[in-house]
């Protein structure tokens, strides 16, 4: 049963289920009673709806317009929205892979939110699921059609229907299938039907190409085509048994050309118009194809001459003909493909397989183009995770044994585990495609079959036929192998040796049983990941490890270690599985791993220590710095844990309850432990004693009682610093599992204690939580909360407002409707991370934030706003309009918005609002915001980050008081034009430049650029910048040159380096009134100050007495009064600059300062020291003002 048949059978079952006229109906599906609950079923063909976006419009066109006419039609059309709102309906949408939104916004046809009683059943080819906009959270049930339940039954039915008597039997058919190794045809309804039909009348080799050719030949015969034969040994063997194509080869070629260009058009569809077809075939040829049945014609509306559309008899035929055109064409047509995503190679897998049977060289060319670097890197990552056992074993088994599973490869996910699973499944399917391509090429008689494949996985689930095909491919490509995973004994030792020797430079990953002979060939190879299956003699094998200069991963199982193993400096991860080792060996291994950077993973699985006297090695272990070792223990023992007592391990993962129990005694002694992972089940009260150094705890797939979790949080609260607690897939045992009055009383006491505790240092992260889990947090004073999914946020909405100390809230997931989160008054920061939400939800969130009586920041990081088109309807638009009006009327001046990777629609939400400050994380964000910036009439602070070129075209609001460039790379032109724009504001404005780098002028345009920059510099100098406050921190000299000769009034130099660079331009700032300095200064103050200076302030400065004295001497040369403010100024101790010459020099400065007329200087001191005041002894300063009264005494 294919996807279309599936929906047809569903519709037929529904018809009979709701009908009282057919009580004897035998349904296809076992749960047919469920269908009786639905009053309506609407069946839609998406290939017939390529120009439509809304389900309701598709129903009108495909159903109502085909059944009703004139007034009755209009009546039903008006009734339809009411039916879909009020009645239970099934909407079946067939062929999502054949439909593309013309605006490229909707990933599936839009069904209005008000149609809540409608259930959508959508079919698709798996590759369509590559679209990242299809979210797992939006799919209630995923059904994967794996093929034919009973191929024997289907084959018998087809054989019976094609003959009047029992001339040919199913037994004969199966003998034919087995002799020619055609069993793979039995898994697909279409291919099985074809095979039976052709077996009845033809002798076929087992080539898919030949089957399609004979099918088309039969169809051509039906159109009374002229008979003709191809010469033996022609270009395409698949045509040699045909009788009606040769004389119509021009039609065949024209069809193939049409199939190719229609398949690879920008808006790929399996349905096309007559005009599109006639670009490739003539009217006569079209008529012939329609009569033959190769093309089908259908009318899309009730009017016969309108909306006529065409399609091939089956998608497979179209794919074969497209492949034939590629093989036959002398032009490089492959380069014209529309590459939409890195998964295009999977979408095109059928075409690639056909092409292997037609022209292997062109199949390789197509593979090279489709399998880009990112695609191959994903395969590499998936195989790496498989070899390292990072994948769930059930997932890995499912991918390897399920012939149709494509779900995981074609879905993106933010968690590393699911990403790894997807990448591994990608590798499985790519190899499966390559094997199918090889078999097709062989069946088609192709010579020199050599397909581009560098990764070879011989798992135990490969059947003999596939394994032999993969082996042949390996031995033909043995000089360019990247991965060789041998879990079955399919290769001879001599073949393995040949592959390793010839792929010495390319082989990166090896998993196999290794003999002494094979071991010798591993020396000086480029292997990065090495997994030994079975026991090895460690002493004889350890010599190879130092020679593997790129080795990063090693797994050894069932072996005994007593001597050292010397690992290369590139090493990152080692797994010891079911091994026995001495304490001496483990100590030396830890010592070696501690020397590797940046960190190393050590997995010990059922590792047994042979010598129990671990205390002998304790002093040596304590001396090892193990902060860069990530230790994972599964099924450890007490001897192993005692060896780790008091060590400096920083990351520890425990994966069984037994491990957690054994480690409990030594946990508090690990005084450098910062991260602890637990994957265990707990009951009773938590009695874990945690080290004071702990900062991060991960509970992953844990099952525990409420009592234990409460006790655990109480234990965390005793830590005197911030700590993060991650609760991922944590299952809370219900109260009933721990019944009894005493128990409930004890739990109540724990709840009271947890509420009274100060948990403000604890950050909680919840992913896949439950209501019971979140109820534990009610009324607590946790400091921050991270909710990993919208479902978590929905559950947490009941308790959020009770978290009266919550400051930071992080949200992830998909949100629609109105935001109903009741936020606590304490909230200061809300971060939306990779969220997808409606405009309605985001507007209502901002309105909620505006009700807080204090400043709050809202970060929008990778937020995708659902477009208005996805939620049509007058009522909805009125509602959104009302929200927009309300958000504009609200006072959002306390709300700061941080945008990272935004969109135009997102920025439009902020238009005309009164937000107080805005952070734009990139030049793209700034460009998107440029249209709405000037409308933000209460915006006071703007932060910019990113790379900017050209002229600054930002239209700044008149309210702006501060603009801050944080880690910015820009051109001279952009920075100059920004300063000019700021000068147009008629009030004081601060401009902060922190970590700003100017791009060098391009050599090719240096002359023109310099003229243009010179003109901008002239304009800057002519502008009145007296009201500017410029702050500079970690900028280059060319940035400072921008300000030469300008009229800025206030300058902040945050570091001594900035002050040094500014020394060249300071004296040119002829309107500078105030200068602020920060940083550390030594030597003599030798800056030339502008004559306009009236105030200089040293803020948190550390300097020598020489430097300060020379500053005062410089200030005394000014011929007007000047204030010198000293805030938290610290003198460098005199012993830092010893020597007679230095002391003489300092004495000379003291003498000079006493001789100088300092009566123009007013000194203001905040938090001074005795040494500081000694500088002023006997001097002639005009006045001294001390803010700290203690220092004035």
UniProtKB/TrEMBL annotation:
It comes from the Eukaryota. Gene3D superfamilies: P-loop containing nucleotide triphosphate hydrolases. This is NACHT domain-containing protein. It comes from Dreissena polymorpha.
């Amino acid at each position: 049963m294919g996807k279309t048949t599936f929906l047809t059978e569903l519709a037929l079952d529904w018809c009979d289920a709701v009908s009282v006229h057919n009580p004897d109906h035998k349904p296809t599906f076992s749960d047919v009673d469920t269908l009786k609950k639905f009053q309506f079923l609407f069946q839609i063909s998406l290939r017939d709806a390529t120009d439509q976006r809304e389900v309701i419009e598709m129903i009108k066109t495909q159903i109502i317009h085909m059944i009703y006419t004139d007034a009755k039609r209009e009546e039903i059309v008006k009734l339809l929205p009411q039916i879909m709102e009020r009645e239970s309906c099934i909407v079946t949408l067939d062929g999502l892979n054949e439909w593309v939104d013309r605006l490229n916004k909707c990933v599936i046809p839009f069904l209005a939110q008000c149609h809540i009683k409608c259930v959508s059943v959508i079919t698709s080819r798996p590759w369509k699921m590559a679209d990242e906009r299809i979210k797992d959270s939006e799919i209630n049930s995923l059904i994967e059609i794996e093929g034919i339940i009973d191929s024997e039954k289907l084959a018998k039915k087809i054989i019976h229907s094609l003959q009047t008597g029992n001339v040919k039997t199913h037994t004969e058919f199966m003998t034919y299938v087995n002799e020619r190794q055609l069993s793979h045809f039995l898994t697909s309804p279409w291919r099985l039907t074809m095979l039976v039909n052709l077996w009845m009348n033809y002798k076929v080799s087992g080539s898919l190409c030949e089957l399609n050719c004979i099918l088309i030949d039969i169809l051509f015969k039906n159109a009374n085509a002229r008979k003709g034969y191809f010469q033996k040994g022609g270009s395409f063997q698949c045509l040699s048994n045909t009788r009606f194509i040769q004389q119509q080869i021009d039609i065949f070629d024209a069809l193939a050309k049409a199939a190719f260009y229609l398949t690879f058009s920008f808006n790929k569809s399996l349905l096309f118009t007559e005009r599109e077809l006639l670009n490739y075939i003539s009217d006569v040829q079209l008529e012939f194809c329609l009569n033959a049945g190769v093309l089908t014609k259908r009318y899309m509306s009730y009017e016969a001459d309108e909306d006529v559309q065409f399609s091939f008899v089956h998608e497979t035929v179209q794919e074969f003909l497209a492949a034939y055109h590629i093989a036959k064409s002398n032009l490089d047509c492959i380069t014209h493909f529309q590459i939409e995503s890195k998964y295009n190679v999977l979408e095109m897998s059928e075409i690639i397989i056909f092409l292997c049977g037609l022209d292997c060289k062109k199949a390789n060319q197509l593979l090279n183009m489709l399998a880009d670097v990112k695609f191959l890197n994903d395969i590499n990552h998936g195989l790496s995770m498989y070899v390292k056992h990072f994948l769930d074993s059930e997932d890995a088994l499912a991918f390897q044994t399920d012939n149709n599973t494509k779900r995981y490869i074609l879905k993106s996910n933010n968690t590393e585990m699911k990403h790894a699973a997807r990448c591994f499944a990608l590798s499985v399917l790519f190899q499966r495609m390559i094997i199918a391509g090889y078999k097709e090429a062989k069946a088609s008689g192709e010579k020199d079959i050599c397909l581009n494949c560098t990764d070879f996985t011989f798992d135990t689930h490969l059947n003999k036929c596939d394994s032999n095909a993969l082996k042949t491919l390996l031995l033909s490509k043995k000089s360019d192998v990247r991965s060789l995973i041998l879990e079955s004994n399919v290769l001879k030792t001599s073949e393995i040796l040949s592959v390793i020797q010839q792929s010495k430079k390319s082989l990166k990953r090896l998993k196999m049983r290794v003999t002494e002979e094979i071991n010798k060939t591993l020396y000086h190879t480029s292997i990065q990941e090495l997994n030994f299956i079975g026991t090895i003699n460690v002493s004889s094998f350890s010599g190879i490890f130092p020679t593997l200069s790129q080795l990063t991963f090693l797994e050894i199982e069932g072996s005994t270690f007593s001597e050292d193993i010397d690992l290369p400096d590139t090493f990152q991860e080692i797994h010891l599985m079911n091994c026995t080792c001495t304490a001496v060996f483990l100590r030396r291994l830890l010592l070696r791993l501690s020397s590797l950077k940046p960190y190393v993973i050590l997995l010990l699985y059922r590792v047994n220590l042979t010598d129990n006297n671990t205390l002998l090695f304790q002093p040596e272990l304590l001396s090892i710095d193990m902060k860069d070792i990530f230790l994972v223990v599964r099924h450890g023992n007490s001897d192993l844990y005692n060896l780790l007592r008091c060590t400096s391990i920083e990351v520890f993962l425990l994966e069984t309850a037994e491990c957690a129990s054994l480690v409990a005694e030594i946990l508090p002694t690990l005084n450098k432990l910062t991260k602890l992972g637990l994957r265990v089940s707990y009951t009773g009260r938590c009695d874990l004693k945690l080290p004071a150094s702990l900062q991060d705890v991960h509970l992953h797939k844990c099952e525990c009682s409420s009592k234990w979790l409460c006790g655990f949080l109480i234990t965390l609260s005793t830590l005197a610093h911030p700590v993060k607690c991650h609760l991922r897939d944590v299952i809370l045992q219900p109260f009933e599992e721990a019944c009894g009055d005493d128990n409930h009383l004890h739990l109540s006491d724990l709840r009271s204690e947890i509420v009274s505790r100060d948990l403000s240092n604890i950050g909680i992260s919840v992913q896949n939580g439950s209501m019971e889990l979140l109820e534990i947090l009610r009324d607590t004073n946790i400091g921050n909360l991270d909710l990993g999914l919208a479902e978590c946020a929905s559950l947490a909405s009941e308790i959020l407002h009770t978290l009266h100390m919550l400051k930071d809230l992080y949200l992830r997931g998909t949100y629609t409707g109105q935001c109903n989160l009741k936020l606590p008054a304490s909230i200061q920061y809300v971060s939306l991370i990779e969220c997808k939400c409606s405009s309605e939800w985001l507007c209502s969130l901002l309105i909620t934030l505006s009700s807080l009586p204090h400043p709050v920041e809202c970060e929008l990081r990778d937020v995708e706003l659902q477009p208005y088109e996805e939620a049509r309807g007058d009522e909805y638009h009125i509602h959104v309009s009302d929200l927009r009006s309300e958000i504009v009327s609200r006072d959002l001046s306390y709300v700061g918005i941080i945008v990272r990777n935004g969109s135009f629609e997102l920025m439009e939400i902020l238009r005309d609002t009164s937000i107080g400050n805005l952070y734009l994380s990139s030049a793209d964000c700034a460009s998107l915001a440029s249209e709405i910036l000037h409308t933000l009439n209460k915006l006071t602070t703007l932060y910019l980050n990113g790379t900017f070129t050209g002229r600054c075209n930002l239209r700044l609001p008149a309210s702006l008081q501060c603009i801050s460039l944080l880690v910015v790379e820009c051109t001279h032109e952009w920075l100059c034009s920004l300063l000019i724009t700021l000068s147009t504001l008629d009030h004081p404005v601060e401009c902060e430049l922190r970590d700003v780098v100017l791009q060098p002028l391009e050599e090719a345009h240096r002359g023109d650029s310099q003229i243009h920059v010179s003109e901008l510099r002239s304009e800057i100098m002519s502008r009145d910048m007296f009201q500017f406050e410029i702050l500079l921190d970690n900028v280059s000299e060319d940035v400072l040159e921008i300000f030469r000769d300008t009229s800025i009034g206030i300058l902040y130099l945050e570091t001594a380096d900035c002050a040094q660079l500014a020394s060249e331009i300071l004296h040119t700032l002829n309107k500078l009134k105030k200068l602020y300095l920060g940083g550390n200064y030594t030597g003599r103050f030798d800056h030339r100050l502008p004559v306009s200076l009236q105030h200089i302030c040293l803020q948190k400065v550390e300097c020598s007495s020489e430097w300060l004295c020379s500053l005062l001497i410089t200030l005394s040369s000014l011929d007007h009064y000047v204030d010198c403010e000293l805030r938290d100024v610290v003198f460098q101790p005199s012993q830092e600059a010893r020597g007679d010459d230095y002391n003489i020099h300092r004495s000379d400065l003291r003498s000079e300062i006493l001789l100088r007329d300092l009566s123009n200087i007013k000194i203001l001191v905040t938090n001074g020291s005795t040494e500081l005041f000694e500088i002023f002894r006997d001097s002639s300063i005009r006045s001294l003002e001390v803010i700290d009264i203690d220092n004035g005494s």
